[in-house]
Amino acid sequence: MDNLRIGDKEIRNRLFIGSGKFADEGIIQDLMTETGVEVVTVALRRVDLQNRQQNVLRHIPPEAILMPNTSGARTAEEAVRIARLARASGCGNWIKIEVISDNKYLLPDNNETIKATEVLAAEGFVVLPYMHPDLYAAKALEKAGAAAIMPLGAPIGTNRGLKTKEIVRILIEECSLPIIVDAGIGKPSEAAEAMEMGAAAVLVNTAIATAGDPLIMAKAFSQAVQAGRLAYLAQPGQTVEYARASSPLTGFLQD
Amino acid sequence: MSFYPLLKSYDGLDVNDYMRKVTSQRVASIIRKERLQALDFLALLSPAATEFLEEMAQKAHRLTLQHFGRTIQLYTPLYLSNQCVNRCLYCNFSHINKEIQRRRLSPEEIEAEAKAIASTGLKQVLLLTGDVPGKEPLEYLVQALDIIKESFTSLSVEINALSTEEYTLLTKHGVDGLTIYQEVYDEKTYESLHPAGPKRDYRWRLDAPERGCQAAMRRVNVGALLGLHHWPSEVFFTGLHAQYLQDRYLDTEISVSIPRIKSGPEGYQPTAPVSDRDLVQIILAFRLFMPRLGITLSTRESAALRDNLVPLGVTRLSSGVNTAVGGHIDEEAKDGQFIISDERSTEEIRQMLLQKGYQPVFQDWHNI
């Protein structure tokens, strides 16, 4: 069994999905059923906690792992308050920290994210911080008590792919926590690439939600993530610069 | 800091002459660009760009989908008062308009109006008053906010221009959004349309959105009343203003409204009409210029037009609108600020969006 363990949860499917941009939130349930996706992130700011019948949570299957996120928060303080609100409202103790005060590119604020992680981890949350890939910040998040680290592949919603590949590779090599590539992944092949590199999981929203057929795209992503993971586990052969001749020109030197 | 010097730096620009010289090839190349400069935006408002509306629409749709998904925010205005000291020639609330009955909601009426709106499911509301500056009207507004905030998760205001300290006071009482139109960016036209009242101060109003950003408003919405002056230049300066704010106040969501002014008191008629085709071109140019810009469309536009504009770049729609003070609790209430064209209820707008493959968003923030 090659399950991913985060907090007290065992996760079989390493594709995590976002729920923010779907035309009809009702598709989330179908999508999870059809692909086996288990982890879904929900923006708590859009959840009407007083009206459970009319919010996105009614579309999340009860067996799913709910990862409320703090999108909309611009400071650590706001993120902490949203996280506490999520837990008090029965959304569990997982929290994806999103602290973004840049409305032009939606880039996360690592400093505020570290502060929020520190507070919430101390309060017993399973904290999954979304971050701008940076080794020092990742190490600070580890120290602050994060349960995983979620670097962006490219700015949110851009579908530009794994633009931060080299730094994400360094985080995978240097961090002891699972690295979950979040944001920017636009195509299943890019998700597979992240997984081949050793990412523990990928989180995708825009690429699925805005696809012509979100359901089929989700299946493609799920399979790509699985393929990438298998390739990583299989330990790919070394890449070399020149072809290895089957009839070496210097073979005559053998005794 | 002020947008004014940037605005003045364009004094030598002859907008009409510039637009006349824009070629089809230039427009085609701008549409292919990833990042547009200010004059590219102006070129997209030119007659040459009208040949490219479909190409612009395709790109605008893709960009909107990418950044906002298939979602549309819903809100409604709540009119607290139509008392006003200004004399804006185009506005029914102008203090010289003796045709309308002046009214200011009592605390009980405010609560009832808020509950009536909240019962439709709306969670985001825009509070409006006429322009009555001073301590007492501000205290009235604060009292109203304290009543209303129980019913909604987001409160915006569209009121007279305030100081940074006054905006900060409002944020402490739950306000997270500010809408303030410049009405008209052309300074001479502004003076002629505002012959009396504190609103005559062009620069106080021009810098108000920036003061809102400094007061930590989460959302600031700017705009020009289309029809008061040559629309391409008005839209151009609105875009520059939005970009100026977005570049300097990263933590504030900047959006624009594109209201087309209608007839006003004493037979006032807009002098620079904007056609449906012009309006489409305006929305598309805004989206290509600023891909993450919020674009708000009011019920001044007809239901059919609003439905068709949804996929082109609009991110926020008003619904269930009544522009009369007390209009949601008093069937006799009349004398709205303007005549609305889309009279559909919030539920009807919700259904329309679902049928078009869009998710109506009633709430986008928790009042924390």
UniProtKB/TrEMBL annotation, chain A:
Its main location: cytoplasm. It catalyses: [ThiS sulfur-carrier protein]-C-terminal-Gly-aminoethanethioate + 2-iminoacetate + 1-deoxy-D-xylulose 5-phosphate = [ThiS sulfur-carrier protein]-C-terminal Gly-Gly + 2-[(2R,5Z)-2-carboxy-4-methylthiazol-5(2H)-ylidene]ethyl phosphate + 2 H2O + H(+). Its EC number is 2.8.1.10. It comes from Heliorestis convoluta. Catalyzes the rearrangement of 1-deoxy-D-xylulose 5-phosphate (DXP) to produce the thiazole phosphate moiety of thiamine. Sulfur is provided by the thiocarboxylate moiety of the carrier protein ThiS. In vitro, sulfur can be provided by H(2)S. GO terms for biological process: thiamine diphosphate biosynthetic process. 1-deoxy-D-xylulose 5-phosphate binds at residues 157, 183-184, 205-206. Homotetramer. Forms heterodimers with either ThiH or ThiS. The active site is at 96 (schiff-base intermediate with dxp). Residues 6-248 form the Thiazole synthase ThiG domain. It is an enzyme of class 2 (transferase). Belongs to the ThiG family. It is found in: Cytoplasm. The lineage of its organism: Bacteria, Bacillati, Bacillota, Clostridia, Eubacteriales. The keyword Transferase applies. SUPFAM superfamilies: ThiG-like. One of its GO terms (cellular component) is cytoplasm. InterPro entries: Aldolase_TIM (IPR013785), Thiazole_synthase_ThiG (IPR033983), ThiG (IPR008867). This is Thiazole synthase. Signal peptide: none annotated. One of its GO terms (molecular function) is thiazole synthase activity. Pathway: Cofactor biosynthesis; thiamine diphosphate biosynthesis. Keywords: Cytoplasm, Schiff base, Thiamine biosynthesis, Transferase. The gene is thiG.
UniProtKB/TrEMBL annotation, chain B:
Residues 70-300 form the Radical SAM core domain. This is 2-iminoacetate synthase ThiH. Its cofactor is [4Fe-4S] cluster. It comes from the Bacteria. GO terms for biological process: thiamine biosynthetic process. One of its GO terms (molecular function) is iron ion binding. Keywords: 4Fe-4S, Iron, Iron-sulfur, Metal-binding, S-adenosyl-L-methionine. PROSITE patterns: RADICAL_SAM (PS51918). The keyword Metal-binding applies. The gene is thiH. The keyword S-adenosyl-L-methionine applies. InterPro entries: Aldolase_TIM, BATS_dom, rSAM, rSAM_sf, ThiH, ThiH/NoCL/HydG-like.
